[in-house]
Amino acid sequence: MAEAADGEPTVDVSKIACDEFVKYDIADPRQIAAWTSGYYHGLHNNPVDKQQTLEGSEKIEEYCFKHPNALVMETLNESER
Fold it and tell me: Structural domain tally of the chain?
């Protein structure tokens, strides 16, 4: 974890492992899932839907329990299937 100019810690979301995600090591998984959902939908120019974000959080968590060494950002494509 790095530190921003204002003293707040910054997190490289691309490096969060599934194991860290499900164990709340970084932050509440729902917050991480909401961020990744916004990022993913932004890349594809899709509007973010609150219900889809919640469902996506559950899919990411389910995937991460089965694949603890995967990176959370890698699960986005897997959890969309």
Answer: 1
Q: What is the pLDDT along the chain (81 residues), one digit of tens a residue?
A: 555 556 677 778 888 899 998 898 888 888 888 887 778 778 878 887 777 777 777 888 889 999 999 998 887 765 454
Q: Does residue 7 fall inside a structural domain?
A: no
User: Domain residues for 36?
Assistant: 14-79
Is this prediction's pTM over 0.85?
A: no
Distance CA 28, CA 46 (A): 24
Q: Is 33 exposed, middle or buried (0-12, 13-18, 19+ CB in 10 A)?
A: buried
